[in-house]
Amino acid sequence: MLIPVSIVIPICRKEDQTMVWMQLRQEDGHLDGKWEFPGGKWEANELPEDCAKREFLEEVGVEIKQIDYFKTYPFQYSDRSVSIFSYVFLCKEAELKSGSWTLLNEVDLSKIPEANHQLIEDLKRTFN
Fold first, then answer.
1. What's CA 15's distance to the chain center, in Å?
2. Which residue ranges make up each domain of the chain?
3. For the segment 45-82, what is each residue's pLDDT rounded down to a tens digit?
4. I need a labelling partner for 73 at 20 to 30 A (CA). Which of 52, 58, 86, 122 fits?
């Protein structure tokens, strides 16, 4: 079964560097302890953008009005198939306190879910 997921990628430009904000995933599965972007599954009759905003508010506690569609990424894990609809939120570093800001060029792919690896590479090409 294909699971549609929407995520928000908080991005901050600081001088000539691009930073992304991530949070630590806590679950009982194989993604526990990985760094990820806020997001989750769509509710019935929900648009992907609305899901992304709702999940961001639920997980981060910050309401966002403007996000921009980035790309969609299908990915097959051993136990599930996901289709990740990614959105970019351009913000200031001070807007998000919990979680972790990381330089985009220094994101350690071994510490993020495999489904996000291509996304990180595309972000580097777009924002650096």
1. 22
2. 2-127
3. 999 999 999 999 999 999 999 999 999 999 998 888 99
4. 58
Strands 2-14 and 17-24, by their bridges, are antiparallel
Q: From CA 126, how far away is CA 14, in angstroms rounded?
A: 16
Which amino acid makes up residue 26? Q
Neighbours of 112 (CB within 10 A): 20
Band (33; pLDDT cuts 50, 70, 90)? confident
- In the chain, % of residues over pLDDT 70: 100
The CATH fold of domain 2-127: Nucleoside Triphosphate Pyrophosphohydrolase (3.90.79)
Residue 18 dihedral angles phi and psi, to the nearest 5°: -110, 130
